[in-house]
Design a protein that fits this description.
- Strands 3-1-2-5-4 form a 5-stranded mixed β-sheet.
- It is globular and about 45 Å long.
- The protein has one domain.
- The chain is α+β, with helices and mostly antiparallel strands.
- Helix 1 packs across helix 3.
- A hairpin with a 5-residue loop joins strand 1 and strand 2.
Length: about 130
């Protein structure tokens, strides 16, 4: 996903959907690592005194190549051997790393952002509903 507008819109949607689960003093910054081939990596840093700032890096050729530039402990070895599809979530320290392996419009939509947030946090029950 190399469309900067689509990436920024997704980041804004993700931030809006996760905001109700965060305290007012907690910020969420994002560094996006786009790829010329399908997909991108979104590296969110969360915490107090974090500014809601976003940075979109220069595109790597593949998502795997972009992953090699990020400090993370979930994947090692030859990163080119991995095949990422859909959205893969890695949570380390104060970061949420989303590895999006495709460019489908639904994956980068507002609904896609909401679904990704719901996989990270448990939605609050609605008033009057039973769990």
């Amino acid at each position: 996903m190399k469309d900067r507008h689509t990436i920024q819109r997704y980041i804004n949607d993700f931030r809006r959907h996760i905001a109700p689960f965060l305290r007012p003093s907690v910020g969420l910054s994002c560094v996006a690592h786009p790829a010329n081939q399908p997909g991108a990596i979104l590296e969110f840093t969360i915490g107090p005194d974090i500014q809601n700032e976003d940075q979109i890096k220069k595109p790597a050729e593949t998502v795997n190549e972009a992953l090699s530039t990020i400090k993370q402990n979930a994947f090692g070895g030859t990163l080119g051997a991995f095949r990422f599809g859909g959205t893969n979530t890695v949570m380390e320290d104060n970061r949420i790393i989303l590895i999006k392996g495709e460019d489908s419009p639904s994956s980068w939509s507002d609904e896609g952002a909401r679904d990704d947030v719901n996989r990270i946090v448990r939605p609050r029950p609605r008033h009057g509903s039973r769990s």
